[in-house]
UniProtKB/TrEMBL annotation:
It comes from Veillonella montpellierensis DNF00314. It holds the Pfam family GIY-YIG. Residues 1-77 form the GIY-YIG domain. Gene3D superfamilies: GIY-YIG endonuclease (3.40.1440.10). This is GIY-YIG domain-containing protein. CDD domains: GIY-YIG_UPF0213. Belongs to the UPF0213 family.
Amino acid sequence: MNYTYIVECSDHTYYTGWTTDLKHRMKAHNGVIAGGAKYTRIRRPVQLVWYAVFSTKREAQAKEYAIKQLSRKDKEKLIETFTGDDL
């Protein structure tokens, strides 16, 4: 599985990324395990607010790119419509 996700950081900014293991990536972003993006390291804790599942890496990365092109307002609209389960 490939995931595209958005987390909200402690300073209320959004970080968008993709991964093959969302639970592991969230632990890394929050400093539970090594890793995580430099951006989120100084903005912990982060909270998962949106994600989507894709069958290929290419699809997940394309969605990540598309989300990164959105304005904050458009990202908030996307997050508001999210009905997925927390991992």
